[in-house]
Specification:
Blueprint: E1 17-19, E2 22-24, E3 31-33, H1 34-43, E4 63-65, E5 69-70, E6 77-78, E7 83-84, E8 88-89, E9 96-102, E10 106-111, E11 115-117
Antiparallel strand pairs: 1-2, 2-3, 4-7, 4-11, 5-6, 8-9, 9-10
Length: 118
């Protein structure tokens, strides 16, 4: 029936169909472009996050901050050389892809471009 058509990204229904250049879900009436489905499939592979020098990061790693960072909405600064233990990799706001707790600052998100693996 529809072996090669992707499932609906909105409701996960398998009953999608083609309507011209669009893919349509009869269950929730969601329409999307076929090329978006191919791009989403390509992006769904494992995302590799690297530090400032190119080392691959993983959940639970310890990293070191490589430049002074001003904390938004506060007068505190995260100094160069601060070690951050037990990071979690996330899809955060903007380029922020590390969720962690920094001693003296608390829970925060960092960019992988301002840290290096310890």
């Amino acid at each position: 029936m529809s072996e090669s058509l992707p499932i609906c990204p909105e409701c996960s229904s398998e009953h999608t169909s083609e309507m011209g250049a669009l893919l349509v879900c009869p269950m929730c009436a969601h329409e999307w472009a076929a090329d978006e489905a191919a791009a989403d499939a390509a992006e769904s592979g494992p995302r590799v996050i690297t530090d400032a020098v190119g080392n691959v990061l993983a959940d639970g790693d310890t990293v070191t901050v490589i430049k002074d960072l001003k904390v938004k909405g506060s007068s505190t600064v995260i100094k160069v050389g601060t070690k951050v233990r037990g990071i979690r990799l996330i899809d955060g706001v903007g380029d922020h892809d590390i969720d962690c707790k920094v001693d003296g600052v608390g829970p925060t998100q960092l960019k992988s471009s301002v840290v290096k693996k310890a």
